[in-house]
Design brief:
The structure holds 2 protein chains of 2 kinds.
Chain A: H1 28-42, H2 48-56, H3 60-65, H4 68-82, H5 88-103
Chain B: H1 13-27, H2 33-46, H3 49-61, H4 63-71, H5 73-79, E1 90-94, E2 99-104, H6 113-116, H7 121-124, H8 126-131, H9 136-142, E3 152-157, E4 163-167, H10 179-185, H11 188-192, H12 199-203
Parallel strand pairs in B: 1-4, 2-3
The chains are: A mainly alpha, B mainly alpha.
């Protein structure tokens, strides 16, 4: 599909920034997102093509302004909800519980 | 006090979201918590560009291996025990005095995981993906790589199926070096094509 992910040849997207000796992951949430996505993919919850398609349907402004692994997180949440495996309601409820625990 | 500070350090949005998702996946028996740590360990410590460097060094010292590598990349790489996810269909791009190859994934982040590990952030970034296909020489110059005008630059766009590995040219002045010494010269960027192996870089410990 034609969309914001199709970046080849676009201009004005800013300077190329490289980080010397960059770590594989920068933050713990990136590690967990990577692993959860690969394990659910291996477990047959979705295919690579479904994941890519889900990322390609992201809101364009959000696609460009979010870190890479947030795209993965988006696609896992999106597809698991659509398939009824983990619904958005369950996710919101669990996130609220975890946030509340963190404040105790 | 705690109540007053409850909004000063909230978990960042994706951090909270993945915690919620992970806990639900574990609860539903869809993900094994031990497997999460194992997978992270594999990609942080066991898979990376050192694998690809072994492939390149072998191709430099063994002309028959080089031939097999160019004919069937996946099979020749597997000879060294290197296989796995996102490396199922490998195509090797040999640099020559006439042609310099460089790899991108304009649509996403496709990259040969078994030989190079997970891609650096710049490879997945909008500036690299958008620019390297229209002004490759300028982008390569930003990596410190000047390509002579008479050398053709070929940019290869990866797909979900085919993954590329650049086979750089063996640097001059490495006659008689062991395979291990040669592998130490081969940087990640030289196998993406955004740089080339340099004898001086290895000698001074500059690996990237």
């Amino acid at each position: 599909m034609n969309g914001i992910h199709d970046l080849g040849g676009m201009q004005g997207l800013g300077p190329l920034i490289r980080e010397p000796d960059e770590p594989v992951f920068h933050e713990e949430w990136e590690r967990r997102t990577f692993a959860c996505l690969i394990l659910t993919l291996a477990g047959g919850q979705y295919t690579v093509d479904e994941l890519r398609h889900s990322i390609e349907r992201m809101d364009p402004a959000r696609y460009l302004s979010t870190p890479y692994y947030e795209h993965w997180l988006h696609s896992a949440e999106d597809l698991l909800d659509k398939k009824g495996v983990v619904t958005r309601e369950e996710l919101a409820r669990r996130a609220a519980e975890i946030a509340a625990r963190g404040r105790d | 006090m705690k109540h007053e500070h409850e909004h000063t350090q909230p978990p960042s949005d994706p951090a909270l979201r993945i915690k919620a998702l992970e806990s639900l996946l574990i609860e539903k028996g869809l993900v094994d918590p031990g497997a999460i740590d194992e997978l992270v360990d594999i990609f942080e410590h066991r898979i990376g560009p050192r694998n690809g460097a072994r492939v390149v060094a072998r191709a430099w010292v063994d002309p028959l291996y080089r031939q097999r590598l160019l004919e069937d990349g996946t099979k020749a790489i597997a000879e060294l025990g290197i296989t796995g996810l996102q490396g199922e269909d490998m195509v090797i791009l040999a640099n020559t005095p006439q042609v310099h190859n460089v790899v991108v994934c304009t649509l996403c982040s496709c990259y040969p995981w078994p030989t190079l590990g997970l891609p650096p952030t710049w490879y997945k970034s909008a500036p690299y993906r958008s620019r390297v296909v229209i002004e490759p020489r300028k982008v390569l110059a930003e990596f410190g790589l000047a390509i002579a005008p008479e050398v053709e630059v070929r940019v290869w766009d990866s797909s979900a199926e085919i993954r590329y590995l650049v086979l750089p040219m063996r640097p001059d002045g490495t006659e008689g070096w062991t395979e291990e010494q040669l592998a130490a010269l081969v940087t990640r960027d030289s196998m993406i094509g955004t740089n080339v192996p340099r004898v001086d870089a290895a000698a001074t410990g500059r690996g990237k």
